[in-house]
Write a structure and sequence with these properties.
There is one protein chain. The chain has 176 residues and is mainly α. It has two domains: 81 residues, Orthogonal Bundle (Arc Repressor Mutant, subunit A); 87 residues, no CATH class. Helix content is 72%, strand content 7%. The chain contains eight helices and three strands; from the N terminus they run H-H-E-H-H-E-E-H-H-H-H. A three-stranded antiparallel β-sheet has the order 1-3-2. A hairpin with a 6-residue loop joins strand 2 and strand 3. Helix 2 crosses helix 4 and helix 3 crosses helix 4. It is extended and about 70 Å long. The termini are far apart.
Amino acid sequence: MNMTPAVERFVQHWGEMGPRWGVNRSVAQVHALLYLAPEPVPAEDIAEALGIARSNVSMCLKELQGWGIIRVTRNRGDRRDHFASLQDVWELFRVVLDERKKREVDPTLQVLRECLELADKGRGATNEIVATRLRAMSGFFDTASAWYHHVRALPLPALKAFLKTGAKLRGWLARS
């Protein structure tokens, strides 16, 4: 992998952004490198390009595979695994959103439902306040989750068109 100034800058920035998104810095850097790579890259080359330990690269690759945003390939005559990122940025972010929903929103919805059951079983003014607030939070997450499923069902070209019309939609809704 040729670490041009543009590649270095992007990898550095993506690594800085990773912790803000809840992702380890090295994981974000490995992803950035693979995203920009013109062809699949073996783990040894990733470690060398980023100046990080091979064992750290292995952990990063496993995490990125768990997210579903990189894949393993083999080159003919080379016994090593090579790694490549999804290249379509729309599909990449769609996969990340799917994973974030599965890992963050779905468990929160489950806990909210459990908490609502517990609050509804209790008596007293405090339990009624708690139940009211939990219902509001649960309603918000249910609505957001339903919206996500509607948008997620759109074919990619329709999703792009939908998102690009945001300003027009905002103007239309403001008049309503």
